[in-house]
Backbone:
């Protein structure tokens, strides 16, 4: 079975940074593009970023471009999201996504 477990969330002040990780198993990680999405309370799921299977191509939502960086380590079956210059509106549960499947999320709260 596909397993996707995000971690690294927490409480951070505005302007701070966090690095999220997503441990993947149950499929050939290096064969698939991967994405990060997030969901804030009362809001729809928002796509944030996608990285190609080999990691050479990345795309970002306008809301995070220039502040967030997606990367992956195919040897470790792990996806990352470096989040800098965090804003209160970044508060959400963050999930990694394979095709249509989301894993367990991690809560990010940006507040002073």
Residues:
């Amino acid at each position: 079975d596909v397993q996707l477990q995000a971690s690294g969330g927490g409480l951070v002040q505005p302007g701070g940074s966090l690095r999220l990780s997503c441990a993947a198993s149950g499929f050939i990680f290096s064969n698939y593009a991967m994405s990060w999405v997030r969901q804030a309370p009362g809001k729809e799921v928002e796509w944030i970023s996608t990285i190609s299977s080999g990691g050479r191509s990345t795309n970002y939502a306008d809301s995070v471009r220039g502040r967030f960086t997606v990367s992956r380590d195919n040897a470790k079956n792990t996806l990352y999201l470096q989040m800098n210059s965090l804003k209160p509106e970044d508060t959400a549960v963050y999930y990694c996504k394979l095709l249509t499947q989301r894993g367990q999320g991690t809560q990010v709260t940006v507040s002073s």
Notes: The two ends are 40 Å apart (CA to CA). The first strand starts at residue 3 and ends at 7. The mean pLDDT is 97. The chain is about 0% helix and 50% strand.
